[in-house]
Predict the structure.
Amino acid sequence: MATSSERSTSRGPAWARGWSRRRIVAVAAVVVLVVVLAVSFGGGAGGRADVPVLADGADVGVTGVRSPSERAGGTLRVAAPVIDSLDPQRSYTPGVWNLMRLYARTLVTYSSEPGATDQLVPDLATDLGTPSDDGLSWTFTLREGVRFHTGRPITSRDVKYGIERTFASDVIVGGPTYVVDLLDDPANQYAGPYQDEAADRLGLASVETPDDATIIFRLRAPQSDFPFVLALPSSSPVPIESDTGEAYGNAPISSGPYVITSIDAATGILLERNDQWDPATDGVRTALPDRVVVRTGMSGLERDQAVLAGSADIDLSGTGVQPATTSRLAIEDDNPLRERADDLTTGAIRMLALPTDVAPMDNPACRTAVAAAVDRHAVQEELSRQGNAVRSSRLWPRALGDGPEESDPRPDQAAARAALADCGQPEGFDTVLAVLDSQLSVKVAEEVAGQLAEVGIRAEVRPLDGSTFYATDVGNPDNVAANGYGIILTTWTADFPTPGSFLAPLVDGRTISSAGNTNYARLNDPGINSLVDSARATGEDAAWREVAVTVGSASVYVPLAETRVQLVSGQRLRNGLVMRPYIGYDLATAGVR
């Protein structure tokens, strides 16, 4: 996932059309929401003088629980940026995926156990699924007693229909498409449920529902990460009779403990209890608050101020506090704010990609020269001036653990010059360093360019527009070659916490595409592709380590640093459990004072 914050919905809420009974109910809900917001978000720090500042200790929520409590009631107040979509099949923002844990259950989901939030547990299903011996099929059985908020039982066909919606690329846009890659037949592509007019509606042939409780997935190739795909909200059930196509996000049907009762651009989103949710069927969600209020469209500094002042309990963004707020969280003996903070790496690695079809990066020795000249320590210092980062020299996020050795190499100008001689460029060469046009990225690029210049590599820093950077500028390999982008400064993070999810999009040559390409180095090595296939089939860390080490020796990527963030809990927050995959406090277990 290179970037996920630029998607948005365009249509207004469904209840705003016509004076129907539904509108009358919704308007009443808006009135309630306005009152709740006035009480919950109003007043700033002065209005919360009666609330003590909790000081459980720094980083308590990373492997433990901040302010544990089983007490139910109250309103959980969430500060959020612009939300891309409330339709589970259309959102591609981890913070929104965290919110969807409240109303969109999936066959499996992330654990709410402290220190294990990157692991999967059963949700709508009775277990984590049964793969066939050849890894080409997965079978799941649904729990008894699970219902939509309408009261109708959830069946295997509802899960299948939710997945089918992703295939309707002309209607359902913006969300992840892993299921299309894994389940579609290239020779007979499925166009989605809106073009499926068969009387018996067989739907997607690779997903079978022999009865209401059983669902079988037939994969094109073995994929050990498949359960993580099913943990995405895009794999949640949707009742066909309630699907309104692109407008479904205005009133999504809930399968979780809360239901969205109001959506308003000015006042936010209100979620209230779903009386059809049975806690006996759910081992993940505690559903402590009576309601959840999400105030959207807040800037980063506004979110920070709301959480620090006590008018918000959680920041939904998944980006942590802003650089301007970081100084207030300094490690000092008498700093109560630091006691409310949780510091963690995000899995997002900033790196240099060296496209193998752009001269002179088509020569391995020239790529080796670039890698040898880079000073990761200086890059980290530049990053730390405006944010948090830790040095990285491997294609393997820290939280995954069990990865290749972290060597933390220092710049070696002698080795860089020797490599330049080996590649036939003893005096160095000219190239273009493509970078996202943001203040921080440009500063990092200029730092790297300065380091390369010391050995004769003259890199022109070329800032590119953020709206097209990943989609077409560096995401289109032909455009990269045409413009001579020999170095690309990019940031990459995976959609789920597995080595395969991080590595395969970067290194599998069969993933190279003409738009939105994430194999930025345009690496297409048959030997590496074969290693990827073996690792996908087994899912073993050792196999993925071999992929990472082999790619590292080719010097097609130069990892620089991994992003760190600081989360701050609100004064009233209880059960502050850091959900690592979503870089935020878990909404499924959060409570309030």
